[in-house]
Write a structure and sequence with these properties.
- The protein is an alpha/beta fold.
- It is built from 25 helices and 22 strands.
- A hairpin with a 2-residue loop joins strand 2 and strand 3.
- The radius of gyration is 28 Å and the shape is globular.
């Protein structure tokens, strides 16, 4: 048996994936266990789950892979600071401590998280991990590969080919020119959060008109017919500061960025439509160029931009490829799976056999809950529930509840890997209901009213409702398709006088809860082979209502990760206006609970129904350091602290005796130190108070000294070097693009030495 663990961490969406003898055994994001959305910490809990799922210990692993090369990324960051200094100091204050503490010591961090593992660690390039995650699980023997994201080490976009058990990337676009960062800049400018608000910007786009698209093409991006691009960096601030955009950007679009949580104006709506149009144009142009260069019939996609399902839908419908497959965890989380598969196929040269529909098992790779565990939890919680003996009776009962327009939390089987709920951790509703979209947004999800919901539809009937080929396979909810003309309801918006987000109020099809204002829908197809009990529920709903379509949204509320355990699902159920919770074969009705009329409890970051949550505030390094001090130290830490305290007093007394020739003072210092050490060792409750007191006393001194040291290194070392180098080299962050160039794709350096996988650069 050969077991390979892949890890992604320390940027956002940390994750772990386990591959055993080439089979994907388990994969999960750390946020689902820690309950911190987009958790970037070392994925210790996700790793523990993956190993437990396979029944192996860390020392039994054959390889551990990390999804990018940290020293190559460090090179890019240092180059950026050299090119922008003396600007960028605030960004440097966040960068330096993080790298000094964790990222420069990845083998040590991985060793701490995997006690007992003593073998080498494999480091793949970021986009190589993306490419592997897209091609190796795909159903194709060979395919063109296109990866698009914010940035990895230097690359922001790559393309190449996958054949058999090899992936080869031929061309790339390099930082700071990035389609993902361009889209994120507009996400930030319109008041949403980078790395999580891009979905909102995409959902907002259909309400507007792309009136700023020409302005974006003329000033911000030089987009070539082959899909390559360069940005004018004078409009952006992400290279040197904590803002994504510059004052010049703000002037171009008529004023400062929208404040988060403030009302969304027509400017923001039209800006969203404009950047979405440009992003789709770039994605489609790149896909056409890759087809022309590679001659492949099929395409695979990965990287954060591959989660832009509107652009994906256009590539599928308008592009030259016969078929397109997208990694369901296309963002950084999927890099963990990519590096594990890369080790198995590319490093170890193990054969690969393409599978239909794919090798990702429906992306249902997370933990499950046994019926006995669910029953024990519900009994312990004092819940009133009904238990069903088989799938047929369960689905019949739940289909009836859905037909009565009740909102159902659906928790079944293994949790999904990736950002989409695919029928395992989902909130479901009747797509025929004209009020379901509003109810779900306001009373269940506590999120912006304009955001659309996705349909789940039986695969054999997908073409009856959406403009897709018969039996099209879209199990991962990564393609947007138009609703069939025959299903649409004509809306005279001049007569209703609806503008902007108000356009949402008019039903647009006979499945209005999943039809966006532009008659589009993000489609998930469901079949028994991939979805089991969820497919049975859709069939039961179809038998009862004649409709094979349900609303499917993720089982969470705004600001929280998708639920992982029955306890998470129960907490979410209690804190919202959800009507029914289905945990495996157990049905819990809200009105049947003893405290059904009580207000929902304040659980985690939950809030009373009908209110928007407070915006999550980003924690600064100083605040994180104080939180670290205020935590409860472990017994081991307290013992070490006591030893350090005794050593400090002994050394201080010796220095007083030696340098000041004051034996009496030295003896007093030693006596006081000995007394304090004895008390510290003997009286356990005092240990934490001593630890906290001295830590708080030392914190301001350490904060001042560290900031002075960082300022000295930045302004006295990095800045002079950067200023001296600029006249003698090409600026890697050139502000204005060369629009006369035929293409902005650059060749990647071919490297055939497998030893590169064991280096961090």
């Amino acid at each position: 048996m050969s077991a390979i663990l892949g890890i992604s961490a320390f940027y956002h969406d940390s994750a772990a994936a386990l591959v055993v003898d080439g089979e994907i055994v388990a994969a999960a994001q750390e946020e689902r266990f820690s309950r911190r959305k987009h958790d970037d910490s070392f994925p210790a809990q996700a790793i523990r789950y993956c190993l437990d799922e396979a029944g192996i210990a860390p020392e039994e692993l054959d390889y551990v892979g990390f999804y990018e090369k940290p020293f190559l990324k460090l090179e890019r960051l240092l180059e950026t600071y050299l090119a922008t200094a003396p600007r960028g100091f605030r960004s440097f204050l966040e960068f330096a401590p993080l790298w000094a503490k964790r990222k420069l010591h990845l083998p040590r961090e991985i060793g701490r998280g995997l006690p007992g593992y003593r073998r080498q660690i494999v480091f793949a390039e970021h986009h190589e991990s993306h490419a592997a995650s897209a091609f190796f699980p795909s159903p194709f023997d060979e395919a063109a590969i296109l990866t698009l994201d914010g940035v990895g080490e230097w690359a922001t976009a790559t393309y190449g080919t996958g054949r058999g058990n090899r992936v080869e990337l031929a061309r790339e676009v390099r930082f700071p020119h990035s389609l993902g960062l361009l889209y994120s800049a507009f996400t930030w400018f319109t008041g949403f959060r980078v790395n999580s608000g891009e979905y909102k910007l995409m959902g907002l786009a259909p309400y507007g008109t792309p009136k700023y698209a020409d302005r974006i093409r003329e000033h911000l991006i030089d987009l070539k017919p082959d899909g390559s691009f360069r940005l004018d960096m004078s409009y952006f601030g992400y290279c040197h500061g904590l803002r994504m955009t510059s004052n010049r950007f703000h002037a171009l679009f008529g004023g400062p960025p929208r404040r988060p949580e403030s009302p969304i104006g027509q400017r923001e709506i039209d800006i969203a439509a404009s950047i979405q149009a440009v992003a789709e144009e770039a994605m489609l142009a790149a896909a056409r160029h890759v087809h022309a260069e590679t001659g492949m019939r099929n395409l695979v996609l990965a990287g954060g931009v591959a989660l832009n399902c509107v652009g994906n839908g256009r590539i599928l419908r308008e592009g030259p490829f016969d078929d397109v497959w997208i990694q369901p965890a296309a963002g950084d989380a999927g890099g963990a799976l990519g590096v594990a598969l890369l080790i198995w196929h590319q490093l170890l040269d193990r054969p690969r056999q393409a599978r239909t529909p794919d090798a990702q098992r429906g992306s249902l790779l997370g933990p499950r809950a046994a019926d006995d565990d669910v029953r024990a939890f519900l009994d312990g919680a004092g819940a009133v529930y009904e238990e069903y003996a088989d799938d047929a009776s369960l689905c019949e009962a739940v289909a009836g509840l859905l037909a009565d327009e009740q909102v159902v939390g659906w928790f079944q089987g293994r949790m999904e890997f990736g950002p989409r709920a695919l029928g395992a951790r989902s909130i479901l509703g009747d797509a025929r209901s004209p009020v379901m979209q509003s109810v779900l947004n306001r009373k269940i999800k506590f999120r912006e009213s304009f955001r659309p919901f996705a349909p789940s539809v039986l695969r054999e009937r997908v073409d009856e409702f959406f403009e897709m080929r018969p039996r099209s396979n879209s199990p991962y909810m990564l393609f947007v398709a138009p609703v069939r003309e025959s299903r649409r309801i004509a809306v005279d918006e001049t007569e209703t006088a609806a503008q902007g987000i108000e356009r949402l109020q008019a039903p647009r099809s006979d499945v209005p809860a999943v039809t966006h204002v532009d008659y589009s829908a993000r489609v998930q197809t469901v079949d028994a082979d991939q979805h089991g009990r969820y497919a049975a529920l859709l069939r039961a709903f179809e038998a009862k209502t004649g409709s094979p379509v349900l609303v499917n949204t993720s089982f969470n509320v705004r600001g929280e990760p998708i639920v992982c355990t029955p306890e998470d699902a129960w907490n979410c159920f209690l804190a919202t206006d959800m009507d029914v919770l289905v945990l495996e074969r157990f049905v819990i009705r809200k009105r049947a609970q003893p405290d059904a009329d009580d207000p929902p409890p304040e659980l985690s970051v939950r809030r009373p129904p009908g209110r928007h949550p407070p915006r999550r505030v980003q924690t600064r390094p100083a605040s994180k350091a104080l939180l670290e001090i205020n935590r409860n130290p472990s017994a081991r830490e307290l013992r070490w602290f006591g030893l350090l305290l005794a050593a400090f007093v002994a050394v201080a007394g010796g220095l007083v005796h030696w340098r000041l020739e004051a034996p009496e003072a030295a003896r007093m210092a030693w006596a006081a130190g000995a007394a304090l050490t004895v008390v510290y060792a003997a009286v356990r409750p005092w240990r934490r108070f001593v630890w906290l007191g001295l830590s708080h006393a030392a914190f301001p001194i350490g904060w001042i000294v560290s900031h002075l040291a960082l300022a000295a290194s930045y302004f006295l070392v990095l800045t002079p070097i950067g200023l001296a180098m600029r006249p003698f080299r090409r600026d890697p962050l050139a502000r204005a693009p060369d629009r006369s160039a035929a293409s902005h794709w650059t060749a990647r350096r071919p490297v055939h030495d497998v030893r590169r996988y064991f280096r961090q650069f």
